[in-house]
């Protein structure tokens, strides 16, 4: 017998583990009660990102997680689950237990713009989540190729001809911002979708399309090199990294489009867990490393509370819906 | 010489210890799988793709490239010693290599092959070094119309030049094109063939397809075959070939380098075709063709040089145009995409460290292979004794684990299993997996670029002809498509066998 501790012992250990695991699960289900949450966090807090590693959303998640690991006192691994513009990851996290151990990095376009382009069951509803904190604002800039001769947006409106413009894809802020802008300015334009910002920018540099709207961080090196000309930023105020470029609002157009990002947890997360998380994030925002990160990536801090994020994003969603209906724009296909 | 600066910087990238290590790991794995019949470089790269996820792009591609050209060296060893080609590209080496080994000249054969491989590989890298910046100088002129024309040409060449039955290759390519349409339409946001699943909204990922069809499919297929047990190899001595042998082989090495280089660049070409063409050419040129098949040194040196030169030069269309020339290059394409790098004319400009790092790593890798290949022959041959029953489950496990780690998704694992079964059935029924995978990669490029171009042209297809590069490419496309037909027509007039004609017509489709 001594030589074979095997089957029975193994079974015993296994069932012990199973019991243990079941107990742990039970604890999670009952996570709503205050008694358990005082011990939060009970282990690593996973931050899921719906975009591929290396993109700007992923970089933001990693910068945040690095700081929050220290301020929260628990490791915060970043897990990438790309798919359907982030809808896949967001829906998955929304279905997890609401104990604060599972978070998702949310992009505003998924809530405010994507629903305008895809069917209802593919879209994400912000009410299925508890938003913990807003992070930053990533501005879109309208750039023109050097061969097009456009130096300002007025040149585009004066040209009186059809222009081609690249977007970063269907249902993106880049597409919405340009289609609405051109309708308001009475410019005839052909919408040419690219996979992401980089190929759209390359197409402008090679003059395959005359205009494109790209996130600032991506376009900046080519703007500085003089390979593309910045015409407008779509934020409501001028961007501090491009102080000489007018905002669309200044130019007289009503298209406030930018990419915002926030952290969210499954719906029903206990208040004190949310408070703890918010405090940890706010402490991270104050660190030099995180501030430097924002600076380097041309992100404007927009560190709002969860409630403010929800109100603001819902406001944008309504605004965009109204704009596309008003101008009879369909984000899918060309009109 | 401004142009040399990035080249030299590339060397400093390769000489970083991490990159050197991965280069070494790559060529050793390459030689290893080159020795093992069945598991080819495409399957290995597919299986190891996820492992490269955590390292820098340069490092990852250096390793994967090492596997590819390393396999060309490894395949020779078993061809010569055991009459068991480890790779398809070493099949012709068996004819004379094994005869030489029987005559007690195994060392000479291996030595010639190693030297030839080194020369061929190096010559091709030098060609790559000078040709790439030339192509890249047109980089910004490559817009959607040029890409559509290129993709069209690529698909045609792949479907017509591939080895095996033409009709089956076309069927496989058509399935590849169909699979490429799955997912949310890039232009309208409409879901295509997703069956309401969000998992399929972004389409099917390239990696699970490659891992399934090449990796798991190969493993399953190999299980069916019982490889004969490896015999003790003949003793390998006097590895350095004699002056007479070298002299006899030097012409073959030179011709093999040039032939391999050009055949490697052609889409659908590659190491296997290059080695066969070189063998045929040497035999034709020889004063006593009857020596071939009885241990002629040129019969080993020529094909081995050509297959390495082709393996290296097939990186040219991938790295400079973003068009994979063969299935292994399609996997490299996937590997680069995973790393967030889109191969294409902009690569040399935007990512000089990556480009020159990878190119220059091939010099180092070839030197490593030359040094290692001979002393390690004995060890590699011993690996052949590992039974498939042990090797297969381990590789299958690594494949599935790897598939999970890419997107942390069980759905991908299911996809690998499904495509593994598809790959197995394809092999069993004589369908080459290459055209499917290549068409899958190029299909997406073709569709998106074509639709994008038509938007830019305002729906006018004649726009393709107004741009010099796309017009030239389309002309080449028409020539390639029509030429076999014209040729067979002329042959018909001369009264050639009509049987050949029907085949040629099928090719045009």
Question: What this model shows, in words?
Answer:
The complex is a heterodimer of chains A (335) and B (509). Chain A is an alpha/beta fold. Chain A has 2 domains: 41-137 and 259-324, D-Maltodextrin-Binding Protein, domain 2, CATH 3.40.190.150; 139-257, Periplasmic binding protein-like II (D-Maltodextrin-Binding Protein, domain 2). Chain A has helices spanning 6-29, 34-37, 56-72, 87-94, 108-112, 114-117, 153-159, 173-184, 197-205, 216-224, 271-286, 288-296, 306-326; strands at residues 46-49, 78-80, 102-107, 129-145, 163-167, 189-193, 211-215, 228-233, 258-266, 300-301. In chain A, strands 1, 2, 3, 4, 5, 6, 7, 8, 9 and 10 form a 10-stranded mixed sheet that branches. In chain B, strands 1-2 form a two-stranded antiparallel ribbon. In chain B, helix 4 runs antiparallel to helix 12 (297-313) and helix 6 (106-136) packs parallel to helix 12. The longest helix of chain B has 31 residues, at 106-136. Chain B is globular and about 70 Å long. Chains A and B meet through helix 4, strand 6 and helix 9 of A and helix 20 of B.
SSE inventory with pairings:
The complex is a heterodimer of chains A (335) and B (509).
Chain A: H1 6-29, H2 34-37, E1 46-49, H3 56-72, E2 78-80, H4 87-94, E3 102-107, H5 108-112, H6 114-117, E4 129-145, H7 153-159, E5 163-167, H8 173-184, E6 189-193, H9 197-205, E7 211-215, H10 216-224, E8 228-233, E9 258-266, H11 271-286, H12 288-296, E10 300-301, H13 306-326
Parallel strand pairs in A: 1-2, 1-3, 5-6, 5-7
Antiparallel strand pairs in A: 3-9, 4-7, 4-8, 4-9, 4-10
Chain B: H1 4-14, H2 17-35, H3 41-48, H4 57-82, H5 93-102, H6 106-136, H7 144-161, H8 166-180, E1 183-184, E2 191-192, H9 206-224, H10 243-265, H11 271-285, H12 297-313, H13 315-321, H14 327-338, H15 347-350, H16 352-373, H17 377-383, H18 388-407, H19 410-428, H20 433-456, H21 463-466, H22 468-493, H23 499-508
Antiparallel strand pairs in B: 1-2
Helix pairs in contact in B: 1-16, 2-4, 2-16, 3-4, 3-9, 3-14, 4-5, 4-6, 4-12, 4-14, 4-16, 5-6, 5-12, 6-10, 6-12, 6-13, 6-16, 7-8, 7-20, 7-22, 8-20, 9-18, 9-19, 9-20, 10-11, 10-12, 11-12, 14-20, 18-19, 22-23
């Amino acid at each position: 017998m001594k030589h074979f501790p095997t089957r029975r012992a193994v079974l015993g250990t296994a069932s012990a583990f199973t019991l243990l695991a079941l107990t742990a699960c039970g604890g999670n289900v009952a996570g709503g009660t205050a008694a358990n949450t005082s011990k939060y966090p009970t282990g690593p807090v996973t931050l899921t990102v719906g975009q591929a590693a290396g993109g700007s959303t992923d970089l933001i998640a990693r910068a945040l997680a690095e700081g929050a690991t220290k301020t929260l006192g628990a490791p915060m691994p970043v897990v990438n689950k790309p798919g359907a513009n982030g809808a896949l990851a967001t829906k998955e996290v929304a279905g997890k237990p609401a104990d604060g151990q599972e978070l998702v990095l949310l992009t505003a376009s998924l809530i405010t713009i994507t629903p305008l382009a895809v069917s209802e069951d593919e879209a994400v509803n912000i009410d299925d989540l508890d938003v913990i904190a807003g992070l930053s604002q990533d501005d879109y800039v309208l750039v023109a190729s050097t061969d097009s001769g456009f130096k300002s947006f007025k040149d585009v409106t004066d040209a009186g001809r059809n222009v081609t413009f690249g977007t970063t894809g269907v249902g993106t802020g880049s597409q919405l911002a340009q289609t609405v802008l051109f309708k308001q300015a009475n410019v005839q334009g052909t919408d040419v979708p690219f996979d992401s910002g980089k190929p759209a920018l390359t197409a402008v540099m090679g003059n395959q399309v005359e205009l494109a709207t790209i996130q600032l961080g991506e376009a900046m090196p080519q703007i500085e090199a003089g390979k593309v000309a910045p015409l407008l930023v779509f934020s409501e105020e001028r961007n501090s990294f491009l102080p000489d470029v007018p905002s669309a609002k200044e130019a007289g157009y009503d298209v406030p489009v930018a990419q915002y990002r926030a952290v969210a947890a499954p719906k029903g997360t206990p208040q004190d867990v949310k408070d703890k998380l918010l405090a940890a994030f706010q402490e991270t925002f104050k660190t030099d490393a995180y501030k430097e990160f924002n600076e380097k990536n041309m992100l404007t801090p927009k560190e709002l509370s969860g409630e403010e994020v929800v109100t603001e994003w819902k406001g944008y969603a309504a605004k965009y819906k109204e704009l596309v209906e008003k101008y009879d724009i369909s984000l899918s296909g060309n009109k | 010489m401004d142009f040399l600066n990035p080249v030299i910087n590339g060397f400093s990238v390769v000489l970083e210890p991490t990159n050197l290590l991965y280069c070494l790991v790559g060529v050793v794995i390459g030689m290893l799988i080159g020795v093992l019949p069945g598991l080819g470089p495409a399957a290995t790269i597919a299986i190891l793709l996820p492992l490269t996820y955590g390292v820098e792009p340069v490092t990852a591609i250096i390793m994967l490239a090492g596997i590819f050209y390393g396999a060309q060296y490894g395949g020779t060893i078993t061809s010569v010693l055991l009459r068991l080609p480890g790779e398809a590209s070493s099949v012709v080496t068996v004819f004379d290599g094994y005869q030489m080994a029987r005559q007690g000249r195994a060392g000479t054969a291996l030595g010639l092959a190693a030297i030839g491989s080194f020369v061929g590989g190096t010559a091709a890298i030098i060609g790559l070094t000078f040709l790439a910046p030339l192509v890249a100088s047109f980089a910004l002129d490559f817009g959607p119309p040029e890409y559509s024309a290129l993709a069209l040409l690529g698909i045609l060449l792949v479907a017509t030049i591939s080895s095996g039955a033409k009709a089956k290759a076309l069927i496989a390519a058509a399935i590849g094109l169909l699979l490429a349409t799955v997912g949310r339409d890039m232009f309208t946001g409409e879901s295509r063939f997703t069956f309401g699943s969000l998992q399929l909204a972004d389409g099917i990922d390239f990696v699970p397809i490659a891992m399934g069809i090449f990796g798991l499919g190969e493993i399953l297929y190999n299980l069916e075959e019982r490889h004969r047990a490896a015999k003790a190899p003949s003793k390998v001595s006097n590895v350095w070939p004699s002056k007479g042998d070298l002299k006899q082989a030097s012409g073959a090495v030179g011709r093999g380098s040039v032939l391999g280089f050009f055949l490697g660049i052609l889409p659908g070409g590659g190491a296997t075709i290059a080695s066969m063409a070189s063998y045929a050419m040497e035999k034709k040129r020889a004063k006593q063709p009857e020596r071939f098949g009885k241990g002629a040194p040129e019969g080993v040196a020529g094909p081995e040089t050509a297959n390495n030169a082709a393996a290296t030069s097939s990186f040219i269309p991938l790295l400079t145009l973003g068009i994979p020339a063969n299935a292994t290059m399609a996997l490299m394409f996937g590997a680069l995409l995973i790393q967030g790098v889109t191969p294409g004319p902009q690569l040399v400009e935007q990512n000089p460290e990556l480009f020159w790092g990878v190119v220059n790593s091939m010099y180092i890798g070839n030197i490593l292979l030359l040094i290692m290949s001979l002393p390690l022959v004995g060890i590699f041959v011993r690996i052949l004794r590992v039974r498939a029953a042990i090797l297969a489950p381990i590789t299958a496990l690594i494949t599935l684990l790897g598939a999970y780690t890419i997107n942390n998704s069980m759905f991908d694992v299911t996809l690998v299993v499904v495509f593994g079964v598809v790959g197995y059935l394809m092999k069993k029924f004589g369908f080459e997996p290459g055209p499917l995978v290549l068409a899958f990669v190029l299909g997406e490029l073709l569709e998106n670029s074509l639709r994008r171009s038509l938007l830019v042209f305002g729906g006018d297809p004649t726009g393709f002809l107004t741009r010099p590069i796309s017009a030239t490419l389309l002309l080449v496309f028409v020539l390639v498509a029509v030429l076999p037909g014209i040729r067979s027509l002329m042959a018909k007039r001369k009264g050639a066998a009509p049987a050949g004609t029907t085949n040629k017509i099928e090719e045009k489709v």
